[in-house]
Structure formats: C-alpha cells, structure tokens
Amino acid sequence: MMKLLHMEKVKDGKYLKNYELTYLNKAGKEKKYEIVSRSEISGPEAIGGRVSGLSIVAFHEGKMLLLREFRMGVNRFVYNLCAGMLNEGESLEECIQRELYEETGLNVKKIHTILPPSFAAVAFSDVKTQVAFVDVEGVFADHTSENEQISADFYTKEEVKELLETEEFSSRAQIAAFFFAGNPSF
C-alpha cells in the first residue's frame, strides 16, 4: 500500500511552493516525488485542502465564451475558459464576477451552478478549483494587466466544433467545448 512518509518544502517561489514528498510505493520501496502548490502546506494532511480558484463556463444567447490567451507555461496561444484565483475573504460569486469583468468586461447575468472542488493538475500539484456555469451579458472590454494577452469572443456550436479540430485548448476548456458542441454520442 502506498504511504506518504514525510514532506519537505524545497523552494518558496513568489506564486508556487515546491515540495518533495517521500513515500513508500506499493512494492514497499522508498521513493521521492515532487509537487507544487499555490499555498503553504503545513503537513501531509493539508495537501489539497484549500480551494484556490475557479474556472467559468459562460454562455450568451446560445453561444459559448472562450478566451484565446497567451500562456507562458506552454509558450503559445490556447483557447481557455475565463478563470482566476480566489482573493482572501472573497466569495466564489464575487470571484466569478471579478474575473469575468477583468478578463472580458462582461457581467454575470445568472449563475446556474458551481461544481464542488476538483483538482486541476493531479500529476504534479494539489491545486483545487471549482467550475461555475453562468450566463453573461454586456460588452467586451479589456481590463487585463500588461502581463496578460487575452481576447474573448462568443462561439456557436459549429464554430466550437471547428476550433476543437484546429486549435489548442486547456483541458478544462476542451472538455466544456466538446460537450457544448454536442459531440457526445453516448
């Protein structure tokens, strides 16, 4: 049975903290594993204990909102959902409105549902986020910082189907776009 023996912070970056985990694998051998977190982890029991942000699946008049943004982590433009970090003391509803406004200029018309927390990158991080499904309204405006390059637009199901065949996506945006486009036959 796999078992975490201990953990040690190995780097304290501005946005990410790196930890080395020592664990017993299923063969009983001691192994090392490296993870990153957006929060300070006090001990093994605290890994994955904190929601740090959200992704927003937004719709307007039968179209889906997608962002085309430059992401430094992959050094290219990808299609993505509006998303962001939860500020200290901020409710999920406040975060949805703020992030939507900052990245697109749009406003929340209605929040349909906010899914329970899920892990964003289980292979290397304990980052936990939530996904919100909302209707939006308003006019596009760029309120991003000089460190972000984002263009937002609404896409029909047919346009989304074409994007899925020709463009690169974040995984959450790709899954949401796939289901929006009506691809499932199961």
Q: Topology of this structure?
A:
Blueprint: E1 3-12, E2 17-24, E3 30-37, E4 51-60, E5 63-71, E6 76-80, E7 82-85, H1 92-104, E8 107-114, E9 118-119, E10 128-137, E11 150-155, H2 157-166, H3 171-180
Parallel strand pairs: 4-10
Antiparallel strand pairs: 1-2, 2-3, 4-5, 4-7, 5-6, 5-11, 8-10, 9-10
Description:
This protein has 3 helices and 11 strands. The chain has helices at residues 92-104, 157-166, 171-180; strands at residues 3-12, 17-24, 30-37, 51-60, 63-71, 76-80, 82-85, 107-114, 118-119, 128-137, 150-155. The strands form 2 sheets. Strands 4, 5, 6, 7, 8, 9, 10 and 11 form an 8-stranded mixed β-sheet that branches. Strands 1-2-3 form a 3-stranded antiparallel β-sheet, with no helix packed on it. It is globular and about 55 Å long. It starts with a strand and ends in a 6-residue tail after the last helix. 18% of the residues lie in helices and 43% in strands. The protein is α+β, with helices and mostly antiparallel strands.
Rg is 19 Å
Number of DSSP strands? 11
Percentage of β-strand residues: 35-45%
Instruction: Encode the helix/strand succession as letters.
Output: EEEEEEEHEEEEHH
Compute the separation of the termini in Å. Answer: 35 Å
What summary fits the major beta sheet? 8 strands, mixed
Anisotropy-based shape: globular
- Unreliable stretches, pLDDT < 50, 5 or more residues? none
Please state the average pLDDT score: 95
Can you give the helix content as a percent range?
10-25%
Which structural class do the helices and strands define? Answer: alpha+beta
Number of helices: 3
